[in-house]
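Hi Y.,

Following your request, here is the sequence exactly as I used it, all 119 residues.
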Amino acid sequence: MLGAPMMAHWITLLADPFILVASLGGGAAVLVLAALGKPAKEQRAEEEPEARPALDDDAFYENFYLHTPDPKDIAVRLRRLYAGQLGPPWDKVRPKDNVAEVYDLDFDTPRSSPPFLAA
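Below is the corresponding structure, written out as C-alpha cells. Let me know if you'd prefer a different format.
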C-alpha cells in the first residue's frame, strides 16, 4: 500500500491539468496511430476474407480442390493452420490468398544452417 507522502505526490501529479491531458491524450494518440499505421495491403487482406461467406471443410474442398490431385486432408489441414495462426478472418482463406506477399514474408531466400547442424 502507498504511504501518505507517496499518495499525496500522485494526487498532486494527476491534479496537474497538463499532466492529465498529456497522459490521456497520449494514450488516444497511440491508438489512433496504431489504427492508421497498418499498411493498406494488410488491411485489405483482412477485410476481404471477413466479407466472404463461410465454408465448411467439405464445401471448401469441393469449390477449390475437387478437380486437383491435392488430397482433401492436406487442403483442410492447411486451411485450419492459417486460421489457427492468423486469426478469425483467415478461416475464410482461399487458394488465391497469399499470406507471404501480404505480410512480406520471404520464403525464397536460403537460410544458413543453425550452428548445431554445421559440420
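The chain has a mean pLDDT of 74.

Thanks again,
Q.
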